[in-house]
């Protein structure tokens, strides 16, 4: 079966200062089969929105090709648009309109007759659980409610493929989970979903496959489980507040594995041997060496470890699930 989204050698350059050319998307290849949730994970400025804008025909590629729903994004933009739903990162909504009015208007713009537009608006409000806020002005909606309304708008023409650009950035954990459930329900009913995110947890929870993007390039791509398995063994996180004891701590730990760049607030991040699941020997050894350990944890690899392995840096998160 041909993929619903096929991207080959896609490049988008922007002019930088002093006539330099900056590739925001730098040669991306990917294919998303029908029915998949594909998570595009990367930090600020990685190129996520630029790629999405090209795929939804809002931005012309500098080079490369892509097909969405079987149509070429440059030569057949109308056909592409007919098959997709999009919620962009920064959607502006008129604060004086009500949720119902906005959906009704959008349905009319999509060619529905008034009675059908009303029915569609009601159906979509129900679908994203906003029936009670139907007649409230958008200015009074919470962040989570706005995102759900964005989602409802993108569903008016029953798209086969849905593009969601950072659908939960800035939302609290509860609103985030509500939106995840909506996305899962849509996917269960057959919609292919391409979503971008900066949140490891979101990619892990929602995506069948994850593409990790850094500096405009796809640096890894697989199921979350396979990506984490590739990274291998467990890690040990150690915090020692007493600076005079840190050099000795580093020496002792380095005997047991490779020291990696720790995340902020932690002093040591040790990659243990494959299959190592014990914490006690390290606690004992450090204690016997007279080191005051303030915190020690055994942690399983996360997608952040995949990111660290591929790029040498941590995926900085600025959302509510920041550790
Ligand atoms: N219109 C533009 N003109 C010039 N540079 C741009 C333009 N749009 C994006 N860029 C640059 O391209 C790079 C990628 O930006 P992009 O918005 O795609 O990143 P992103 O992954 O969506 O980031 P974020 O998580 O912050 O939304 C950045 O360096 C950005 O400054
Ligand atoms: Mg973006």
CATH superfamily of the largest domain: P-loop containing nucleotide triphosphate hydrolases
For this entry, what is the oligomeric state of its chains? single chain
Number of domains: 2
State the distance separating the first and last CA atoms.
41 Å
The CATH top-level class label of the largest domain: Alpha Beta
The parts where pLDDT drops under 50 for at least 5 residues are: 318-323
What does this structure look like?
The protein has 323 residues and is an alpha/beta fold. Helices cover 34% and strands 25% of the residues. It folds into two domains: 5-227, 3-Layer(aba) Sandwich (Rossmann fold); 233-300, Alpha-Beta Plaits. It has helices at residues 48-55, 77-83, 99-109, 114-127, 143-154, 173-188, 200-206, 224-231, 246-254, 280-288, 303-311; strands at 5-15, 21-32, 37-41, 63-68, 71-72, 84-87, 161-165, 192-197, 209-214, 217-222, 235-239, 258-260, 268-271, 295-299. Strands 6-7-8-3-9-10 form a six-stranded mixed beta sheet, sandwiched between helices. Strand 4 and strand 5 form a beta hairpin. The protein is elongated and about 80 Å long. The model is unreliable at 318-323 (pLDDT under 50). Bound molecules: adenosine-5'-triphosphate and magnesium ion.
């Amino acid at each position: 079966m041909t993929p619903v989204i096929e991207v080959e050698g896609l490049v988008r350059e922007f002019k930088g200062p002093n006539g330099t050319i900056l590739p925001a998307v730098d040669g991306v290849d990917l294919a998303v089969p029908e029915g998949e949730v594909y998570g595009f994970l990367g930090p600020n400025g990685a190129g996520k929105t630029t790629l999405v804008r090209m795929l939804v025909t809002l931005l012309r590629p500098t080079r490369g090709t892509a097909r969405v729903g079987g149509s070429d994004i440059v030569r057949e933009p109308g056909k592409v648009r007919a098959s997709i739903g999009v919620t962009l990162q920064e959607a502006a909504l008129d604060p004086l309109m009500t949720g119902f009015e906005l959906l009704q208007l959008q349905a009319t713009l999509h060619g529905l007759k008034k009675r059908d537009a009303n029915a569609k608006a009601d159906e979509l409000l129900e679908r994203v659980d906003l029936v009670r806020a139907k007649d409230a002005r958008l200015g009074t909606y919470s962040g989570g409610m706005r995102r759900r309304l964005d989602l409802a708008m993108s569903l008016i023409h029953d798209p086969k493929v849905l593009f969601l650009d950072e659908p939960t950035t800035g939302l609290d954990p509860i609103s985030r989970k509500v939106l995840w459930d909506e996305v899962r329900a849509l996917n269960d009913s057959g919609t292919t979903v391409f979503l971008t995110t900066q949140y490891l947890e979101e990619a892990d929870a929602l995506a069948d496959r994850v593409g990790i993007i850094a500096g405009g390039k796809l640096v890894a791509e697989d199921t979350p489980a396979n990506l984490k398995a590739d990274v291998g063994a467990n890690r040990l996180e150690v915090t020692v507040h007493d600076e005079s004891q840190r050099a000795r701590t580093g020496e002792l730990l380095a005997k047991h594995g490779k020291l990696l760049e720790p995340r902020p607030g932690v002093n040591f991040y040790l990659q243990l041997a494959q299959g190592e699941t014990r914490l006690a020997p390290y606690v004992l050894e450090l204690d016997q060496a007279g080191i005051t350990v303030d915190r020690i944890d055994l942690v399983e690899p996360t997608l952040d470890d995949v990111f660290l392995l591929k790029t040498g840096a941590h995926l900085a998160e600025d959302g509510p699930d920041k550790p």
